[in-house]
Specification:
The longest helix is centred in the N-terminal third of the chain and has 19 residues, at 3-21. It is elongated and about 65 Å long. 62% of the residues lie in helices and 0% in strands. Helix 5 (72-78) crosses helix 6 and helix 7 crosses helix 8. It is an all-alpha fold and 234 residues long.
């Protein structure tokens, strides 16, 4: 598939999903520091256990200063519902210290200084933090600071690949850049593409037994044409 063909396909995917799910307003789902720490906790952890670990941590230590000053063993114990609680406890304390040490913060624990940075500067700073990858940084910058970035989770990646926007050889890391190059550099459009593909991957284009007969994208989908429809014609 040529770049122009992929661009046409992603534009049609946007149009169909905007019509199906409706265009959403870009609103933060959580305050910035919670978004950052909760997303760090979410790695290889269910949403329920992520939430349980987050609230146990704050209930035990009170606020971010309390979390920062907590004994490592006590923090790891509070984070036990999450996978790899020891590693996450260490990373969270390192991240909180790095945030507190930011000159712009004057000893406060806040990441609102990111709003004043360019997208590239903010992304570089976030991805330099221990335990913070491209997906976490992109989610935070798009949801909370309306920066034009493209978060790619497992659902966004799977749907984009099945439809044929991404190649079989593309990786989730590369997909952040590939999709961003083809989408409008508009935070609301990027947010809608992310959320719509997230929902679509959860409800329709599931990993096992995708509901292709119900899918509004089956008219442009490579997976439907090459796998599902081909099987029906045998």
């Amino acid at each position: 598939m040529t770049k122009n063909e992929a661009q046409e396909k992603i534009a049609e995917t946007q149009r169909l999903l905007n019509a199906y799910y409706g265009v959403l307003k870009l609103e933060p789902r959580r305050e910035p520091l919670r978004e950052l720490i909760s997303t760090m906790l979410s790695h290889r952890t269910t949403h329920n256990n992520e939430e349980k670990a987050y609230f146990q941590m704050l209930e035990k230590f009170g606020d971010w200063e309390g979390v920062l000053k907590a004994k490592f063993e006590d923090l790891a114990d509070a984070l036990a519902p999450a996978q790899f609680p020891g590693q996450k406890a260490a990373n969270i304390q390192k991240v909180l210290q790095l945030i507190k040490d930011q000159p712009a913060n004057k000893g406060k624990i806040s990441i609102d200084f990111l709003q004043k940075l360019s997208t590239e500067e903010a992304m570089e700073w976030l991805t330099s933090l221990p335990g913070v990858g491209l997906k976490t940084a992109s989610l935070l910058l798009l949801f909370n600071y309306h920066k034009p970035v493209m978060p790619v989770d497992t659902h966004v990646f799977r749907v984009s690949q099945r439809v044929g926007i991404l190649a079989a050889t593309d990786t989730p890391e590369k997909a952040h850049t590939i999709l961003l190059e083809m989408l409008p550099k508009d935070a609301v459009a990027l947010y809608n593409y992310h959320i719509h593909l997230l929902w679509h991957g959860q409800r329709i284009c599931t990993w096992r037994k995708p509901k292709c007969e119900k899918c509004v994208l089956n008219g442009i989908c490579n997976y439907y044409r090459e796998v599902v429809k081909a099987d029906l014609e045998i």
